[in-house]
Amino acid sequence: MKPHLPSRTLIVYAFMSIRKMLNRKAKAEIKKDLKVQEKLNVEVKDSLAMERTKLANERTLLAYSRTAMALVLAGLTFMKLFEDMLYQSIGFVFILAGLVMAVFGYRRFCKKKESITRYAHAYTPTSPVHAEVTAQEKAEAT
Question: What is d(CA 21, CA 11) in angstroms, rounded to the nearest whole number?
């Protein structure tokens, strides 16, 4: 047996009566609350964007590390498998390139991390201030 649901007409009438009950003052208060909520939502989006930036920086470091490790392993493979001096030299160049890549990636990670941290500390969220101002306006109005 299906539960009894109100008809569409009843839902429309209920919605219309709610609309009529809201006077201009209530609508203005709701709009203010919505503006505060929108500002809070922006703050959440900003903090999530900062987290995504930090994670992207870490992913980049991992990519540099993987590439450096692959270069070093390729160099070791050349040096172990081939006895010709040309291949030994190629292996040495690969190992050197891998080490340079690892150092470069780590330095880049540290610089970006510093930059991200500096930006995060310089950022001041404004939503709590707006929320406090709105709360004070409401208190003064009543």
Answer: 15
User: 10-residue block means of pLDDT along the chain (142 residues)?
Assistant: 54 57 66 72 76 94 97 96 94 98 97 91 65 68 69
Q: How far apart are alpha carbons 64 and 101 in whole angstroms? A: 7
Residue among 125, 111, 129, 132 at smallest CA distance from 49: 125
Residues 6+ apart with CB under 8 A from 77: 91
pTM for the full predicted model:
0.61
Query: Which amino acid is residue 132, in one-letter code?
Result: E
What is the rounded distance in angstroms from the CA atom of residue 65 to the CA atom of residue 39? 39
Q: From CA 48, how far away is CA 85, in angstroms rounded?
A: 53
- Work out the angle between the directed axes of helices 85-122 and 24-81 (0-180°, nearest 10): 160
DSSP 2: P
Which residues contact residue 23 at a Cβ distance below 8 angstroms, ignoring those fewer than 6 apart?
none
